[in-house]
Amino acid sequence: MKYKVLYRKYRPDNFDDIVGQEYIIKTLKNSIINGNISHAYIFSGPRGTGKTTTAKVFSKAINCLNTHDGSPCGECEFCKNFHDNPDIIEIDAASNNGVDEIRELIENVKLTPTNGKYKVYIIDEVHMLSTSAFNALLLTLEEPPAHSIFILATTNIENVPITILSRCQRYDFQKIKIDDIVNRLKYISKVEKIDIDDDALKEIAYLSEGGMRDALSLLDQLSKSSQKITLELIEKQIKTISQKNIDELLSSIEDNDTSKCLNLIDEYRNRAVDYKTLVKKVIEVASQKAKSLKISGGAKRLNFSDYKNLILKLADSLNKININVDSYTILEMIILDFFDSNTNSTDFNPVKEKTSKIENVLKKEEIKEEQKKESEKIEEEIDNESNNLENLINIRINNCFVDAQKTYLEKAKEEITDFISTEVDGKIKSILIDSTVVAASSQNLILVCNNIHNVEIANKMGKEIEDSLNKSINKMYKIIFISGDRWTKEKEKYIQNLKTKTVYKYIEEKEIPKEEKIVNSIFDKSKLEII
Predict the structure, then answer these.
(1) Helix, strand, or coil here: 483?
(2) Residue 530's closest CA among 443, 401, 356, 432?
(3) What is the predicted pLDDT for the residue at 362?
């Protein structure tokens, strides 16, 4: 019989065997039980976390003739013939990303199912589709035939156009917990009669970075190289590093033993230990030590701030590993710089430490007074900044209402939607996705943040957002973000002013906005359509 790799052999064919995505599985099962099946879904998340597997099991369940608690029975004709079923169409968007392939799919959508109730189209790596292919798919996603269901899977949700996302139910898959991966590997090892240590299981789970498929691939690879899988075997085969080695390295840093530290780094370099794995493990252990010190305190040579600085420097080094420099040279420079910056605490002595603490107590009142003055200065600056921002908001709301029109509003919505689909800055994109244009004039836009906590962030980034948007669409908009409650009040105030014939006059942004009553003013009723 032809050998089947473990990740394929043990790919779940029911919901109960899918690990680490309990909330998503529960929600999908409930939708089947209640008959609330959507026409389009999008599954996003890291590789190997079960997106495509969940899509297949869900496809089986919605067509199953005898579901049990939302899960496929595995015994009916549809379940038994699932893998050869023409009603389940899988498409790899990485290799079929053109508009012609999508048009062929759209033509196929019109055909009724051969065996089951639904035809299900699973499009993997959907973010790889071209812009024209996405546009071709858009209308079908919005109004597909009742018998067709789309399940899109992606590891890069930020590259999927907002127009596609808005037409799908979205489920975000998380990295699988180490304990969940260990338990699954332990079960499979027992079935396959693979002799493996518990420490080795944990190391495989760690190296898989939350992906079950990667974990099973590693287990498969290691099982072929030895009759027994140990931590030492993994270190040799995968070029990883043990917890003991990490503790040794951090101990040398804590003891200010520069020579031992550099010798250990040389040893890891000569063993060809993967630099990324090494740094990630050091960061993980150092962060645990930092949190422990923050919680319990205690006399240590390195304090929380020291560990924090080391962690941040190491994390930054991960962004430099692709440059044409030995990664371990970067690590050596970081460690040596760290030793140098902590020379004041190298000769750790409990008596000296105690004396230092007494001196700090004597200076406490002086420091406290300086901190108080600095705090008052900062508070004053914050108050001024808040007042300036509130004035700007008032002015821009006023100026938007000067010539707000429905046509401006519709145009602005289209422009921002198009801009979001092409914008690469994740922060700008996420803020605009979370916001809605509620009023527009020829020069001003008012946007409401759906999440009230984003209002302050959005306004602080206002200039950056304006510049990016205006450059993209060749406009000169001035933008302001407000909460939904604030918009309700401003809208009511605007309607009342129309009734009382109060006119908004354009105000320079250095001024404070005012409203003036004009008795004989006649308003353009089209302004009401911004509401």
Answers:
(1) coil
(2) 401
(3) 47
Q: Which has the closest alpha carbon to 43: 56, 35, 52, 30? A: 52
Residue 82: other Cβ atoms inside 10 A: 22
Residues 150-173 as b or e (16 or more Cβ within 10 Å = b): bbbbbbebeebbbbbbebbbebeb
pLDDT, mean over the chain = 80
Q: What is the tens place of the pLDDT at every residue in 55-72?
A: 999 998 888 888 888 888
In this predicted model, what pLDDT tens digit does every residue of 84-98 receive, in sequence order?
788 888 888 877 767
Instruction: Say which CATH number the domain at 13 has.
Output: 3.40.50.300
**Model confidence pLDDT, tens digit, residues 103-124:** 888 888 888 888 778 888 998 8
- The reply to whether 219 and 257 lie within a common domain is no
Question: Which CATH number does the domain housing residue 457 bear?
Answer: 3.30.300.180
Query: What are the residues facing 120 on neighbouring strands?
Result: 88, 149
CA 96 from centre of chain? 26
Structural domain harbouring 436 = 390-530
Alpha carbons 8 and 61: distance in angstroms, whole number: 20
Closest to 89 in 3D by CA, of 120, 112, 115, 110: 120
In a domain, 524, yes or no: yes
Tokens of 494: 């605007």
218 within 8 A of 251, measured Cβ to Cβ? no
pLDDT tens sequence across 422-440: 876 778 887 888 889 999 9
Round to whole Å and give the CA distance between 338 and 342: 6
Distance, in Å, from the CA atom of 523 to the CA atom of 503, rounded to the nearest integer, reads 8
Structure tokens that stand for 417 in this block: 């939607």
